[in-house]
């Protein structure tokens, strides 16, 4: 894959996998949590995730080589998300409820794939059973929950680890603070959120995009 964006030097597919990818420090996984406590924490994380109707937050995206980009993410359930990158990054990622679309305005390229085929499906696909496919990963901190989500029968969907921090003001009492996603090409991306706003009005038009391709090539 060609490396482009002279100022940021990120492969486009690696960036696309972003908003997605997986892994928490290995040290977090050393101890096994008691079964009852694990079930309770997993239920709490699932409840918090399902309690999010809309979310708007700043994000910092880091790829496996340590390169970073920032922007604003907007989420609306079910199935809609928009990654608006910082000025100077000619890239947009949008999910409209059915498909996840990556638009590269530098080369007028558009790529689409079903939400369910992406690690982001754990966040956006209402049919994805996080409780069924989620595994609690001990963090050693009672105020932090880490849940790894992957379907063992569908490894091509990738894997996502969702991190929640206890916060009485967040939906379900747990704030979605970050996630790490790993796609089937082994591209890993970390998304860290800040300045989260829940329940804010979000119009469906926020999840549309300008198609840069000539009309005859769409």
Describe the protein in words.
With 218 residues, the protein is mainly β. The chain has one domain: Clam (outer membrane lipoprotein receptor (LolB), chain A), CATH 2.50.20.10. It is built from 4 helices and 13 strands. The strands form 2 sheets. The chain has an 11-stranded antiparallel beta sheet. The chain has a two-stranded antiparallel sheet with strand order 1-2. The N terminus is likely disordered.
Characteristic key phrases:
218 residues, mainly beta, outer membrane lipoprotein receptor (LolB), chain A, 11-stranded antiparallel β-sheet, two-stranded antiparallel ribbon, 4 helices, 13% helix, disordered N terminus
Short overview:
It contains four helices and 13 strands. By secondary structure, it is mainly beta.
Q: Which fold name fills CATH's third level, the topology? A: outer membrane lipoprotein receptor (LolB), chain A
Distance between the termini: 23 Å
Q: Beta-strand percentage?
A: 35-45%
Given helix and strand content, the structural type is mainly beta
Main sheet characteristics: 11 strands, antiparallel
Could you state the order of secondary-structure elements as H and E?
A: EEHHEEEEEEHHEEEEE
Task: Point out poorly predicted stretches.
Answer: 1-35
| CATH architecture verdict | Clam
The neighbouring-strand order within the major sheet is 8-7-6-5-4-3-13-12-11-10-9
Q: What is Rg?
A: 17 Å
Helical element count? 4
Q: What's the shape?
A: globular
Mean of the pLDDT scores? 81
What is the count of β-strands? 13
CATH class descriptor name: Mainly Beta
- In CATH terms, the superfamily is Lipoprotein localisation LolA/LolB/LppX
Helix content: 10-25%
Total domain count: 1
